Q: What sequence folds into this?
């Protein structure tokens, strides 16, 4: 059995369990992002972000696609 990793969100520093080996069960799989949204977020942040930050960033990009994150 693979263990999940406890990581810190690079945006808010909140710790959460990353389930990259079980991506369908990971908290991030609940936040649908377009390829463009993924690209813009990955330009600014390295690693996994928490679900709350992903939701906030998605909302910001949907409201104003060219706004800095």
A:
């Amino acid at each position: 059995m693979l263990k999940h990793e406890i990581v810190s969100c690079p945006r808010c520093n909140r710790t959460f369990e990353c389930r990259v080996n079980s991506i369908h069960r990971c908290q991030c799989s609940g936040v649908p992002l377009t390829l463009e949204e993924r690209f813009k977020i990955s330009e600014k942040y390295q690693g996994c972000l928490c679900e709350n930050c992903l939701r906030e960033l998605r909302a910001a990009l949907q409201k104003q696609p060219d706004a800095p994150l």
In short: Residues 5-63 form one domain.
